[in-house]
Amino acid sequence: MSTSTVVRDQLFSTVVQERRSVRSYDPNYKIAKEEIKELLEEAILAPSSSNLQPWRFIVIDSQELQEKLLPIAYNQKQIVDASAVIVVLGDLESYKLTEKIYNRSFEQGFMPEDVKNSMSERTYKTYSSLPVESAKQIVYTDGGLVSMQLMLGARARGYDTVPMGGYNAEQLKEAFGISERYVPVMLIALGKALNPGRPSVRLTVDEVTSWNEMSL
């Protein structure tokens, strides 16, 4: 049994409490591509609007390409020291896969054929006619869900991450051949912490929560 498998057997509450945004990584530690793929397989179980799963990923684990990304991400050192950087993108045309997704649901017995047909037609029509800003809001939301699931999955395996919004999106798209169909959601550095992430404080639940009506 691998070390990562043993680590994954910890309580979810422990994983949540121990997750930190780590910016200092062991540059000599490399996570195997197969394990990164397993991590992504767990992450994509996240929910998404109408199950269209608009997330797309570019896994950058080549040192040469991490160096290329470094100035685009404002020279943040974790870009080159982490085992990999995962570029999380949102597909503004994910509705084009509606039929494929719903057909698979039908074939696996998750929905009857008449429901599949009606949902497929309705979903395609709705999402293909959305204003661009509405479509972006959806993929940003879904991209955030899959990103959080990925980061918790990494911690459960004994790895660390940091979500990054500090980068030049236009330069990123140009450098890595990303078309206008896709919008960058965030970068996630993934690796083995060299130094632990610093603890941080949170507002209390009572400070951020209202019951039944807004009272804050």
UniProtKB/TrEMBL annotation:
Organism annotation: Candidatus Cohnella colombiensis
Protein name (record): Nitroreductase family protein
Keywords tagged on the record: Oxidoreductase
The Nitroreductase domain, residue ranges: 17-192
TM region(s), chain numbering: none
Gene3D superfamilies: NADH Oxidase
InterPro entries per UniProt: Nitroreductase, Nitroreductase-like
SUPFAM superfamilies, A to Z: FMN-dependent nitroreductase-like
Family: Belongs to the nitroreductase family.
Single Gene Ontology MF annotation: oxidoreductase activity
Pfam families: Nitroreductase (PF00881)
Keyword Oxidoreductase: yes
Keyword Oxidoreductase appears in the UniProt entry: yes
